[in-house]
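Entry type: protein chain
Record version: 2
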Amino acid sequence: MFATIRRYDVIDQTRIGELVKKTDETFLPSLTELPGFSGYSLLEAGNGVMSSISYFDTSEHADESTRLASNWVREQKLETVLNAPKVTSGEVVVHKVSELIQA
């Protein structure tokens, strides 16, 4: 499994709500359709910092998600809202999620 972390510095913090809504409604559906998609989270870290973490089966799939994110920012005209992200990508070497217990 591979993960990509993108850290964005939000230029216009008054548009964070809009950014979250657009991410949920337009970016996430496209991301989930990519081959190898395994998971995605968007974090609001405060002080105008937003970070996303996406999980994919292979590095190639993770790289495709970076291209998708870049295109999406341009298509949504969010260049005035976000600085270019700092991107970290690599193989996940330790990972654990809790198991769902159904009654």
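Comment: The longest helix spans residues 16-32.
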